[in-house]
Design brief:
The complex is a heterodimer of chains A (158) and B (535).
Chain A (H helix, E strand, L loop, with lengths): L16 E6 L12 E6 L2 H10 L6 H11 L3 H4 L17 E3 L5 E3 L2 H9 L22 H13 L8
Antiparallel strand pairs in A: 1-2, 3-4
Helix pairs in contact in A: 2-5
Chain B lengths: L12 H5 L4 H29 L10 H20 L2 H14 L8 H23 L13 H5 L4 H28 L12 H33 L12 H35 L6 H14 L15 H29 L8 H24 L1 H7 L3 H31 L5 H28 L13 H31 L51
Helix pairs in contact in B: 2-3, 2-4, 2-5, 2-16, 3-5, 4-7, 4-14, 5-7, 7-8, 8-9, 8-10, 9-10, 9-11, 9-12, 9-14, 10-11, 11-12, 12-14, 12-15, 14-15, 15-16
Classes of the chains: A alpha+beta (158), B mainly alpha (535).
Chain lengths: 158, 535
């Protein structure tokens, strides 16, 4: 409930079935309609379901497509025209900032850096990145972060 | 003059609105809170009606959000908090201590006017469009997004808060300074100990509510960053401040009820309350520890785990003095000569329902389980067992017990018992299914819900209709008793308290002769007459 703080929750579905997802903090007019479902499937059924999805591919590859479409690769990719921090091997590592402090590159840091890039500047880089706050949806943000996570074990190619 | 009582002394309406007599002011308060009780009850009735159907069939989301906010705000601040202290307390405190009036009679009348102005402001907000924040006015919703009349409603609660503070101050000074000769602290009836503890909380906690609501209004009107993090505010600050008042406020509501029950249990089992000093000091302990548990409302709000651990521990501690009371009431009944008059039925219902409410409170004090049931119907059921099953039941018990003294008339006993039983059954049918709903995961403040929850909601709504009937019945038989009831004797229950040693209804200045207290309260014996405190 604290703005800017993200909470991760892992659930293990012991039984196959459909589970409710409710907004748990009164949030306004359509609070009672702000819900969703978690559908737990057997792994074989899940594979079938995944294969039947029109835009097949996991979150990270969706993120990779977005990464190119939004132009992120222009700076963060190989041979970018602007010098920007490489994202390979970034996730989970400490990042030195220009103010002398260090942060860990977790989900929250990545999210903040996409939405408010001016807040935490990586040491040795110019604050040139524009904010993507109005350009990416919540779902796209998840995909982008998943893509950056998938680069965690890669060596920087530069 | 000597044959005139406080009612017959002057019939002009003007004499009522300018009165300084604590008994008349109690009647004024009674009229006010009864009005608010039925307005808040009407909102609850509409909510239960809506919840019969899982698809949000009868009212829109906006209307439903306004209904539960109106129900909460009116019931908490304009019924539960003032109910026992300002009506029964106002009436009997000076009588119980052998005084002519409260210490500050004009201040007492001022409190009533402030209360009514606050209530009028809040009702005005309701009628011009309502408030949709929930009774807790949580930010950032209340300051940034709500499209209701938040500031007017908050102003109403703000003004009513001053009425609480003045009443608390009046009681503290009165109990300290105006006790009759011989009435030592340990000779005070337990109702007065509980009202004393209540008054201390009223005086210490209510100013924090006033400040909190004031800050909220400043942020909403002027956009000053107090709670909004994008303006440099702290989003958890509001919850800390709000619950710093509102958790002790829970004890403001329940402590007077506990005091009433202590009186009733003694009179109707013809025994002194078991462990008088423990019951007396447990009120003070609840008042004190109650200030240290507010964080248990914030286990999922993002406070530190260490803070949550401490608040969880303190919440278990605060259950101890409540349990002392329950055990001591039960021990008082043991080998007593128990009679089941209407007030006693309410007192016994209180013990059972309060125990269920209190024990489920311990579930919520557990960090792990609370994460699961936060903001579900489990919480709703828990606090209604305390507030309605406990507090409202005690209020009705006290109202029936002191009715002959207040009005000088006797009500029809059979009708009164029927209403008590109806309320008990209706209450359980309304709120027990809500524990099940909460454990199954149904969130509160939802009027659109998955169909598998419908059956328990239908039970709950059916119970609510019985409960509503139970609450409407007293209007008729108590109203009837005012005009056609038999004249009440001075001491119909053969009770020992000083309030029963004067006439029914009492004369304007309570006692014709100065009172001298010679013994402890509750000098009941099974085989002999009860000894009044001044005999």
């Amino acid at each position: 409930m604290v703005p800017g703080r993200y909470q991760e929750l892992t659930i293990e579905a012991l039984r196959v079935g459909t589970y409710h997802l409710f907004c748990a903090e009164f949030c306004g007019t359509d609070h009672a309609r702000m819900g969703g479902q978690i559908i737990a499937l057997e792994s074989r059924d899940y594979a079938d379901w995944l294969a039947r999805q029109p835009n097949a591919g996991d979150l990270a590859s969706q993120g990779a497509a977005l990464f190119r479409a939004l132009g992120c690769s222009g700076c963060h990719g190989i041979g970018g025209s602007v010098r920007a921090p490489p994202l390979e091997g970034l996730y989970g590592k400490p990042v030195p900032l220009s103010d002398g402090s260090t942060v860990t590159a977790d989900d929250r840091y990545l999210r903040d850096s996409i939405l408010q890039p001016d807040r935490q500047i990586v040491a040795g880089y110019e604050p040139k990145m524009p904010s993507f706050a109005d350009r990416v949806s919540e779902d796209e943000l998840f995909a982008l972060i998943a893509y950056i996570k998938s680069l965690a074990n890669r060596e920087s190619l530069r | 003059m000597s044959d005139k009582n406080y009612i017959t002394v002057d019939y002009h309406l003007r004499s009522w609105f300018t009165t300084h007599d604590h008994k008349r002011i109690a009647i004024l308060y009674f009229a006010g809170i009864t009005l608010f009780f039925f307005i808040g009850g009407a909102a609850a009735t509409m909510m239960r009606f809506e919840l019969v159907h899982p698809n949000g069939y009868f009212v829109t989301s906006d209307v439903y959000n306004r209904l539960f906010t109106m129900h909460g705000v009116i019931m908490v601040w304009f019924f539960l908090i003032p109910s026992i202290p300002t009506t029964l307390g106002n009436f009997v405190v000076p009588l119980m201590i052998g005084a002519r009036d409260l210490a500050f009679p004009r201040l007492n009348l001022t409190s009533w006017y402030l209360f009514m102005i606050g209530g009028a402001l809040t009702l005005y907000a309701v009628f011009i469009g309502g408030i949709d924040t929930g009774w807790t006015f949580y930010t950032p919703f209340s300051t940034l997004y709500s499209n209701g009349y938040v500031v007017i409603a908050v102003a109403g609660v703000f003004v009513a808060g001053f009425s609480s503070i003045l009443t608390g101050l009046n009681f503290i000074v009165t109990i300290h300074r105006l006790r009759a000769p011989g009435l030592t602290w340990y000779r005070l009836p337990l109702f007065l100990w509980s009202l004393y503890a209540t008054s201390v909380i009223l005086v210490l906690a209510t100013p924090v509510l006033a400040m909190t609501l004031f800050l909220l209004a400043i942020e909403r009107i002027f956009g000053v960053g107090i709670f909004d993090p994008s303006l440099g505010g702290d989003p958890l600050l509001y919850q800390h401040l709000f619950w710093f008042y509102s958790h002790p406020a829970v004890y403001i509501m329940i402590l007077p009820g506990m005091g009433v029950v202590s009186e009733l249990i003694a009179v109707f089992s013809r025994k002194a309350v078991f462990g008088y000093k423990f019951v007396a000091w447990s009120s003070m302990a609840i008042g004190f520890v109650g200030f240290l548990v507010w964080g248990h409302h914030m286990f999922v709000s993002g406070q530190s785990v260490f803070a949550s651990l401490v608040f969880s521990f303190m919440s278990f501690i605060v259950a101890v003095p409540s349990a002392i009371k329950v055990f001591n009431w039960t021990a008082t009944l043991h080998k007593g000569w128990v009679s089941f008059d209407a007030p006693m039925l309410y007192a016994l219902a209180f013990i059972g329902l309060f125990t269920i409410g209190g024990l489920t409170g311990l579930f919520l004090a557990c960090l792990a389980y609370d994460v699961y049931v936060t903001d579900t119907y489990f919480v709703v059921a828990h606090f209604h067992y305390i507030m309605v099953g406990g507090m409202v039941t005690a209020y009705f018990g006290g109202l029936h017990y002191w009715w002959p003294k207040i009005t000088g008339r006797l009500y029809h006993e059979i009708w009164a018992r029927a209403a008590a039983i109806l309320i008990f059954c209706g209450f359980n049918l309304t709120f027990f299914p809500q524990f099940i709903l909460g454990a199954l995961g149904m969130p509160r403040r939802y009027h659109v819900y998955p169909p598998e929850f419908q059956v328990w909601n239908v039970f709950s709504s059916a119970g609510a209709s019985i409960l509503a009937l139970g609450y409407l019945l007293p209007i008729f038989y108590l109203g009837w008793s005012l005009f056609f009831g038999r004249k009440a004797p001075n001491n119909p229950w053969q009770a020992t308290g000083l309030e029963w040693q004067t006439t029914s209804p009492p004369p304007p200045h309570n006692f014709e002769e100065p009172v001298v207290v010679t013994r402890a309260p509750y000098d009941y014996t099974l085989d002999a007459e009860a000894q009044p405190q001044n005999a």
